[in-house]
Structures are given as C-alpha cells and as structure tokens.
C-alpha cells in the first residue's frame, strides 16, 4: 500500500473577535485539510495551519510523498526535510513563540504524520490511540478557554452567541455559558489584553463563581519580569499554573524561581532545540504540547516522555481548529500517561462548523477517545467544499491579529512585554 495522491485543501471558517496580546482574531480562521490517498478509496486525513507561507511549504512537500509507504513515517520526515531544505517560516502573531528551521520542518511534517497514522489505523483496523501505545484513559479532559472579546466584528452587524466580555462580569458570564454547556472542569483565561491588575480581578471573580475549578491565566508574554512576579504573588493559591507571563527562557526562569505556582509555556520551549536550555534553566513546570508544531503525535508523545524525565508536567495548546485536530489531540491525550492537565481547545468558538460528518463532542468537559480504526472521524466532502469556498472569498490569506486590530485602532502596537 503506497500513497498515490496528496490533496491539500485550504479552508476558512468564522472566528469571533477574540482578543489576545497580538491584537484580535480576524473574522475568518484558516486551516489546511490534508488527504493522503492510497487507492481503493482509502484516505488518511490531517489538519494544520492555513496561512499562505505554511501552505506553500505543504505544497512543496506534497509531491515528494507520492509512492511512500504510510507506515514509513521516518521516510516521511526525511522526504519533507529534503523537499523543504533549510527554511524558517515564522507565524505573524508570534503566539507560539519563536521559529527555526527545525520547527518549520516539524510543522510541515505534522499533518502528514497524522494522516499516515490515520491510514495505518485503517489498514490494520485499530484506532490511532493503539498506535501510540494504547489507551491510558477513556476520556480526555479539555478546559474552558475564556477570551476577552467584542460582541461582534465591527464591520459585521451580527453579534455572536457569546456576547461581549471586557470585564470580570463579562468573563464570568462567558465561563458560566461554557461550563453549563460543555461541562468543563477547569478554566483558562487568555490574558495580556488589559492591565494585569484587571485580569487578576477577573481571576478573583472566577474563583468566587467556580470555587472548585482549577484556573489558569495566559498573558502570552505581555508582562515584564517584575510585573510577572507581582502578579504571581497576587494570584498565589488561585492558579494551577501561570502560562507564559513573560518572554524568553531567561525571563521565564527568573519568574519561575520565585513564583508560588508552576509556569507553563507554549512560547519559550517550543521545539526540540529549546528543551535542554529551557529545562536546565528551570524556566517551566508545564509544557503545552501541540502536535501541530512539535512534529505530529509520536513526537508529541516523545516530548511528554522527556518532560517526565525532567519532572515537568504536560498540558496541550490550541489555536482555532476543527474536528480532525480535536480527534488527533484526543487520541494523543488518550495515550499519554503524562497528560495530567486538561487540554486547551478552541472548539466551542467555532460555532459547530466542521469538515467532518460527525465531529467528536465535548461532554462533561471531556472527549471520548474514538474506538473506530484510524482517527475514527470522516471527512464530509460537501462541508469541505463549502469551507474551501469561504477560503476563496474571505480575502484573508494569513492570520494577522495585529493588523486587524490596527484597522480599528491605528495607534495599536504589539509589545511583549507591554506591562
Ligand atoms: O498561548 C496560547 O495558549 C495560544 O497561543 C492559544 C491561541 O493561539 C490563542 O491565544 C489565540 O488564538 O488567540
Ligand atoms: Mg499559551
């Protein structure tokens, strides 16, 4: 069985005006859906970023995968490496930290690896979780992911179901909506938007409303080291972890030495080259694995094992995504003994839009690990075509939260740290 065709479909789906330290989400989020076809109607699927520079790299790699055995993921990596050469393609928003040629290759490799695992599972009749070592849990926990947000995109008259959240009561109302609807049992607030003491007030309000639920705050490196230390002290006993308060391994290490809670990151330890310096500096207590840039599911499992060796915890990071990514995260989470924190997901922000016939659902804050062969989810060709049409007409080819924010506030500057 060999890969006979590689199909890449860029798609766009509506995204609410979520605020972060880079600016604000544009009205459309972009992804690329990967299909590896093997003949006999057998197809493996994957999902990744849809930004134009990344899409060009996927397109560069794709023809080199024809003829590959889907079990040969080592061969896959060397073909991707050879096809790309040495390239370094960063994200514009910088929300997943720095880039490097190594990280770029792993990001391009990832959706193809997931699609190969989907194929492998289908070929041998086993779910992907079994290919990752087998299930250590039946359900994977996800956290409610709160955002400061506007009621609607300014140029579009229709408010979304979540409404405005620009202060503690708005954040508590959003959390209530998400917790009641999905049963989440832990809560993350995306910060770095307002002066830190206002975000601490939101955390206090969440603690009062949800006394039993673990809380996290993630300002995406918007604070200086002294500000981070001050806020860490003020939130002592309130947070299960504080995520990326400040930029860089050195800054994080300075904060980690004195902060009363563990620090987590998806910004300073973001590729294999960061592991030795980051862990030796003691800069984090938790790494947010993200298979989309750590090189797929098996490499994310390797990352978790390295974290275990260093006594570092594991959680999971999420950007705006659809159901193939959720399925991949769920299989990974189902197989990782090291995953002791609920994973992030943007799923509730995508209004139920998907490319799947039957997306996995979040019930009691968890997603059940599928038992069907492969990822256990199927592409809906009509939905894929509709979302591709969105892509062609939406006018966005690269995620750029900062420029979008500047269209409403020309003085806006992205600064890390800002406070
Ligand atoms: O630091 C994080 O957790 C993220 O970068 C998650 C997402 O990218 C989020 O911040 C977003 O999309 O605005
Ligand atoms: Mg983060």
TrEMBL record:
<dbReference type="Pfam" id="PF02746">
    <property type="entry name" value="MR_MLE_N"/>
</dbReference>
<dbReference type="InterPro" id="IPR013341">
    <property type="entry name" value="Mandelate_racemase_N_dom"/>
</dbReference>
<feature type="active site" description="Proton acceptor">
    <location>
        <position position="317"/>
    </location>
</feature>
<dbReference type="GO" id="GO:0008872">
    <property type="term" value="F:glucarate dehydratase activity"/>
</dbReference>
<dbReference type="InterPro" id="IPR029065">
    <property type="entry name" value="Enolase_C-like"/>
</dbReference>
<comment type="pathway">
    <text>Carbohydrate acid metabolism; D-glucarate degradation; 2,5-dioxopentanoate from D-glucarate: step 1/2.</text>
</comment>
<feature type="binding site">
    <location>
        <position position="346"/>
    </location>
    <ligand>
        <name>substrate</name>
    </ligand>
</feature>
<keyword id="KW-0456">Lyase</keyword>
<feature type="binding site">
    <location>
        <position position="96"/>
    </location>
    <ligand>
        <name>substrate</name>
    </ligand>
</feature>
<comment type="similarity">
    <text>Belongs to the mandelate racemase/muconate lactonizing enzyme family. GlucD subfamily.</text>
</comment>
<dbReference type="InterPro" id="IPR034593">
    <property type="entry name" value="DgoD-like"/>
</dbReference>
<feature type="domain" description="Mandelate racemase/muconate lactonizing enzyme C-terminal">
    <location>
        <begin position="168"/>
        <end position="262"/>
    </location>
</feature>
<dbReference type="InterPro" id="IPR034598">
    <property type="entry name" value="GlucD-like"/>
</dbReference>
<keyword id="KW-0479">Metal-binding</keyword>
<feature type="active site" description="Proton acceptor">
    <location>
        <position position="190"/>
    </location>
</feature>
<dbReference type="InterPro" id="IPR013342">
    <property type="entry name" value="Mandelate_racemase_C"/>
</dbReference>
<feature type="binding site">
    <location>
        <position position="188"/>
    </location>
    <ligand>
        <name>substrate</name>
    </ligand>
</feature>
<dbReference type="GO" id="GO:0046872">
    <property type="term" value="F:metal ion binding"/>
</dbReference>
<feature type="binding site">
    <location>
        <begin position="218"/>
        <end position="220"/>
    </location>
    <ligand>
        <name>substrate</name>
    </ligand>
</feature>
<feature type="binding site">
    <location>
        <position position="145"/>
    </location>
    <ligand>
        <name>substrate</name>
    </ligand>
</feature>
<dbReference type="InterPro" id="IPR036849">
    <property type="entry name" value="Enolase-like_C_sf"/>
</dbReference>
<protein>
    <recommendedName>
        <fullName>glucarate dehydratase</fullName>
        <ecNumber>4.2.1.40</ecNumber>
    </recommendedName>
</protein>
<feature type="binding site">
    <location>
        <position position="25"/>
    </location>
    <ligand>
        <name>substrate</name>
    </ligand>
</feature>
<feature type="binding site">
    <location>
        <position position="266"/>
    </location>
    <ligand>
        <name>substrate</name>
    </ligand>
</feature>
<dbReference type="Pfam" id="PF13378">
    <property type="entry name" value="MR_MLE_C"/>
</dbReference>
<feature type="binding site">
    <location>
        <begin position="317"/>
        <end position="319"/>
    </location>
    <ligand>
        <name>substrate</name>
    </ligand>
</feature>
<keyword id="KW-0460">Magnesium</keyword>
<dbReference type="InterPro" id="IPR029017">
    <property type="entry name" value="Enolase-like_N"/>
</dbReference>
<feature type="binding site">
    <location>
        <position position="399"/>
    </location>
    <ligand>
        <name>substrate</name>
    </ligand>
</feature>
């Amino acid at each position: 069985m060999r890969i006979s065709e590689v199909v890449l479909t860029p798609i766009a789906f509506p995204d609410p005006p979520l605020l972060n330290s880079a600016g604000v989400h544009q009205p459309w989020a972009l992804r690329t859906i990967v299909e590896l076809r093997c003949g006999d109607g057998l197809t493996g699927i994957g999902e990744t970023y849809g930004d134009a520079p990344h899409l060009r790299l996927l397109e560069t790699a794709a023809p080199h995968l024809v003829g590959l055995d889907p079990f040969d993921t080592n061969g896959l990596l060397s073909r991707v490496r050879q096809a790309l050469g040495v390239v370094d393609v960063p994200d514009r928003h910088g929300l997943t930290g720095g880039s490097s040629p190594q990280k770029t290759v792993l990001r391009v490799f990832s959706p193809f690896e997931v699609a190969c695992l989907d194929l492998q599972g289908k070929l041998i009749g086993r779910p992907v979780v079994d290919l990752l070592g087998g299930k250590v849990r039946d359900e994977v926990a996800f956290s409610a992911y709160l955002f400061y947000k506007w009621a609607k995109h300014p140029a579009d008259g229709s408010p979304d179901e979540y409404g405005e959240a620009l202060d503690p009561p708005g954040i508590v109302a959003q959390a209530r909506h998400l917790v009641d609807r999905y049963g989440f049992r832990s809560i993350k607030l995306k910060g770095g938007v307002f002066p830190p003491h206002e975000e601490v007030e939101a955390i206090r309000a969440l603690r009062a409303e949800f006394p039993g639920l673990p809380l996290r705050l993630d300002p995406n490196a918007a604070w200086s080291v002294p500000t981070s230390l001050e806020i860490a002290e003020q939130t002592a006993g309130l947070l299960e972890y504080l995520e990326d308060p400040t930029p860089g391994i050195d800054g994080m290490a300075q904060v980690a030495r004195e902060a009363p809670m563990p620090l987590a990151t998806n910004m300073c330890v973001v590729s294999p080259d960061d592991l030795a310096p980051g862990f030796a500096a003691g800069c984090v207590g938790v790494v947010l694995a993200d298979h989309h840039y750590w090189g797929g599911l098996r490499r994310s499992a390797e990352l978790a094992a390295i974290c275990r060796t260093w006594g570092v915890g594991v959680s999971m990071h999420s950007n705006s995504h659809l159901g193939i990514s959720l399925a991949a995260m769920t299989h990974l989470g189902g197989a990782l003994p090291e995953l002791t924190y609920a994973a992030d997901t943007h799923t509730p922000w995508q209004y139920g839009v998907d490319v799947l016939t039957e997306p996995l659902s979040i019930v009691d804050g968890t997603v059940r690990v599928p038992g069907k062969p492969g990822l256990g989810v199927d592409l809906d060709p009509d939905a894929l075509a509709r979302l591709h049409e969105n892509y062609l007409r939406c006018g966005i080819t690269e995620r750029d939260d900062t420029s979008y924010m500047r269209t409403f506030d020309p003085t806006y500057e992205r600064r890390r740290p800002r406070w």
